[in-house]
Design goal:
The protein is of the alpha+beta class and 167 residues long. The protein has a single domain, classed as Aminopeptidase (3-Layer(aba) Sandwich), CATH 3.40.630.30. The protein is built from 6 helices and 7 strands. Strands 1-2-3-4-5-7-6 form a 7-stranded mixed beta sheet, with helices on both faces. Helix 1 crosses helix 4. The longest helix is centred in the middle third of the chain and has 17 residues. The two termini are 20 Å apart.
C-alpha cells in the first residue's frame, strides 16, 4: 500500500531535510544556466533555519521524508513573495508543485493578508513558467539576479481564481 504526500507547515526539525532537498532540486536549474552559484545552492543551513523560523514555509512529506518545500513572506506592500519552490526529482510532474504553490498562496492570503503574489523564475525554466502560467501568474517584468541569471518576474492577484490541477 502506497503512502500519500501531505502538505504541512515546516518545523525546526525539517530544516536539514529542506536544506538537502533544495540542494538536490536546484542542480538541474544550475545546469540549465551553467551557473552553480545560484542562490539556492549557496544558501547556508543557518539561513534556511532563519527562514523556517521567520517566514511561512510549507513542506510536502512522504511518510517522514520531506519531498517538497516552498517559502513565502509578505512585504510592507501586502505582496506575498513566494520562492524556492522545489519538489524531489522522482516526484516531479505529479502536481505536487502546484499543491505547494496553493498552500503558500493560501497561507499568505489568509494568515498574512497578502493582496497579490509575486515570484520569479529563470527565463529558461520552461516547466516552471508553465506551472506558474497555469496557476494564473502573468509576466510583469525581467530582472537579473545577484548570481547573473536572467529572471522573469510574475504576479497574480490574490483574489484570482484558484488553479485546480488535472488528474
Amino acid at each position: 500500500m502506497g503512502m500519500s504526500v501531505t502538505i504541512s507547515a515546516a518545523t525546526a526539525q525539517d530544516v536539514e531535510q529542506i536544506f538537502k532537498l533544495q540542494y538536490l532540486c536546484f542542480q538541474s536549474e544550475a545546469e540549465l544556466y551553467g551557473n552553480y552559484r545560484i542562490d539556492p545552492l549557496v544558501q547556508t543551513l543557518e539561513s534556511v533555519r532563519g527562514e523556517v523560523a521567520r517566514d511561512l514555509v510549507f513542506v510536502a512529506r512522504l511518510g517522514e521524508e520531506v519531498v517538497g518545500s516552498v517559502r513565502g513572506f509578505t512585504d510592507g506592500d501586502s505582496t506575498g513573495l513566494i520562492g524556492k519552490l522545489c519538489v524531489h526529482p522522482r516526484l516531479q510532474g505529479h502536481g505536487l508543485g502546484a499543491r505547494l504553490l496553493r498552500a503558500a498562496e493560501s497561507g499568505l492570503a489568509d494568515g498574512r493578508s497578502a493582496r497579490r503574489f509575486r515570484l520569479h523564475t529563470g527565463e529558461r525554466s520552461e516547466a516552471n513558467l508553465r506551472l506558474y502560467s497555469k496557476a494564473g501568474y502573468s509576466r510583469v517584468g525581467n530582472a537579473t539576479g545577484e548570481d547573473g541569471v536572467r529572471l522573469i518576474l510574475l504576479e497574480k492577484d490574490a483574489a484570482a481564481p484558484v488553479y485546480v490541477a488535472s488528474a
